[in-house]
Design a protein that fits this description.
Glutathione S-transferase Yfyf (Class Pi), Chain A, domain 2, 2 domains, 4-stranded mixed β-sheet, 10 helices, 4 strands
């Protein structure tokens, strides 16, 4: 049964992991307050509600914290079961979605940050991740619009939250990490995902992410004296 109460989300606009529960809450039409800047003005909240890891995101529901983005999404699905399901109904399909979600977390974010830092092999690893997802899109989606089928779900959210970082990285470096000509399924999926109202509310523009990305790139790749 769905629960009411006060819902808050502790995160930053730059965090792909904080974007995940934001999208999930929007899909479920749950009203929430976004608490920005947990490493500045809200640092005490971060330490209070996530004393173990001291990292975002943290969902605070009726003063009770839930940590880790995938744990939060499962909680959202359990507490607010009405609206579109965030998980495939079939147990096998659900297991596959969780497999690819874990793969994205294990491989994609490290590779994207590695590209920004100029680490050897990072570009190839990022392209490999996208290629695997391109190859498996039809199997997961069963020929429909999203990995989850007709509506956005777990795997869509897991991958889609990295689109701002991906587009910014491509813009900064002048290259394509997933080429529309070679990965048409992912390109079409990305357009549909970004066009959804639940996503548009929280996804930063490429321009804004480029500005942030250049700042990080300069930080990790200082100009020689």
């Amino acid at each position: 049964m769905a629960m009411g109460g006060v819902v808050k989300l502790l995160g930053t606009w730059t965090s792909p992991y904080a974007m995940r529960p934001s999208i999930a809450l929007n899909l479920k039409s749950v009203q929430y307050e976004f608490l920005q800047d947990p490493y500045g003005s809200n640092r005490s909240l971060l330490h209070e509600y996530n004393p173990v890891y001291k990292k975002i995101p943290v969902l605070i529901h009726n003063q009770r914290p839930i940590c880790e983005s995938m744990v939060i999404i499962q909680y959202i699905e359990d507490v607010w079961p009405t609206g579109p399901s965030l998980f495939p109904i079939d147990p096998y399909d659900r297991a596959i979605a969780r497999f690819w979600t874990a793969y994205i977390d294990d491989k994609l974010f490290p590779s994207l940050t590695g590209v920004g830092r100029g680490e050897p092999g990072a570009i190839e690893q990022a392209v490999t991740v996208f290629r695997h997802l391109e190859e498996n899109f039809e199997k997961c989606s069963k020929g429909k619009s999203f990995f989850n089928g007709d509506t956005i779900g777990l795997l869509d959210i897991a991958l889609g939250c990295f689109l701002p970082w991906t587009r910014a990285t491509e813009s900064i470096l002048g290259m394509k990490l997933f080429d529309p000509a070679k990965m048409p399924h992912l390109e079409g999926w990305a357009e549909r995902f970004c066009a959804d109202d639940a996503v548009k509310k929280v996804m930063p523009s490429t321009e804004k992410m480029v500005e942030y990305g250049k700042m990080l790139h300069a930080k990790y790749n200082p100009a020689p004296n």
